[in-house]
Amino acid sequence: xxxxxxxxxxxxxxxxxxxxxxxxxxxxxxxxxxxxxxxxxxxxxxxxxxxxxxxxxxxxxxxxxxxxxxxxxxxxxxxxxxxxxxxxxxxxxxxxxxxxxxxxxxxxxxxxxxxxxxxxxxxxxxxxxxxxxxxxxxxxxxxxxxxxxxxxxxxxxxxxxxxxxxxxxxxxxxxxxxxxxxxxxxxxxxxxxxxxxxxxxxxxxxxxxxxxxxxxxxxxxxxxxxxxxxxxxxxxxxxxxxxxxxxxxxxxxxxxxxxxxxxxxxxxxxxxxxxxxxxxxxxxxxxxxxxxxxx
Length: 295
Known about the structure:
mainly beta; eight-stranded antiparallel β-barrel; signal; SH3 domain-containing protein
């Protein structure tokens, strides 16, 4: 029985093999290979090549991991531009506020000579006139507390002391006790208290009721018509030129700020003058002298 089974088995095996072998010359249809999705992935539970080597390497200390690269920042949409808010108005500093304010009219400089009144002195007291411009200087004269129209002819370097004439002498007073009279020097005009004099020969020139009066020793006073008064166009500045005359001729005078002395007294003057006299019936002459506005 066993022999029969073995014989049948031997006969059936070649038949099966021949059935699977394609006939010669007949094209064999090849099965379409399906793509392997995870070809790169090793099969699960597959032995890893070089496992022994990796195991050996695992015994060595692992190198420090390289710092991970920072992820690129994700671009954000730009925020919509908002209108800039107007800055809150702050109060201007005092200096800026003063600059923004309209400039006040600048006070003109105080020219000399000018007239002053004694002030800030008790009525029973007097103002000392000193030989030098300091509080220790010798007192050479005094001014009453009610004195007015005091002519100031000079200032010291500190601007705290002024020189005045009292009688036939000059001296220094503290300016904090004096107050300037306004409007002494008006445009194209002469102060009514103006008086100009000269020596060798003696002469005099001053304003009169209707013009100017020119005087000389042993001669009648000449009443002159004041034809023109000129100034430099500076407010309060005392430089003056004048033209006067009568039937005999013309008198021209040029008055300018300058320290002047009459040569006969100890008084000081702050105005110098040059006078030209000419006419048909007299020779032309030029005179010089000093002027004062003190009353």
